[in-house]
Amino acid sequence: MQSESAYHEANHAAANWQDLYVNYYGMTQEEMLQAGSMWAEHQEKNQTPVRLFKGINSVIQQFSHLSHGICSQNSQLNIRSVLQLNGIDRPFKAVVGYDDVSSDHQKPTPYGGIQCLETMFGHTNSQLLMYIGDHEADTQFARNLQSALGSHARVISVAAAYSHSEPDNWQHKPDYVAHHVEDLLSIIGKYT
Predict the structure, then answer these.
(1) Residue 106: which of 94, 96, 117 has the closest Cα?
(2) Per-residue pLDDT tens digits for 7-59
(3) What Å distances lie between residue 99 and 64, 71, 152, 170, CA to CA?
(4) Cβ atoms of residues 183 and 58 within 8 Å
């Protein structure tokens, strides 16, 4: 099976894992839903160690006074485990994984982001938000979240190009591109 990054090289407009399974691997809608439910079970059993990007701990610690949240297409249990194993779980006030969102509300729809904000703050009003992601769908998600929140919030999109993503090739452009983890310090610093 080809990797998702190989898929993005072949098709930069990929929106999310559902799109990957249907449009790249050729699964039917029903097969995609079945595969997704099977992946959840196996993803949580996967014991492969996850290594954080060098320097990310420092960035998280420097901005630990800010509330952090995660909206991901990874499982919530896996995300929380990685955060705890690396001792960086305290700033993360909410974690929304794909298993917390119905299949028709996955990214890039804003549903998980709204759920995350409500968990973090108890509301979605008057927020300055920054969403950092390494897929074009993450930029689309930030834009969709901005639309859903309206003028009561501002959502800034940051592409994590340090993950070997290629935001220059994306149709949906982020507000900022972090080519190195250290770039996050100045990007985030502009708003704190």
Answers:
(1) 96
(2) 233 333 334 566 667 777 788 877 877 776 666 566 666 666 778 999 999 99
(3) 26, 11, 28, 27
(4) no
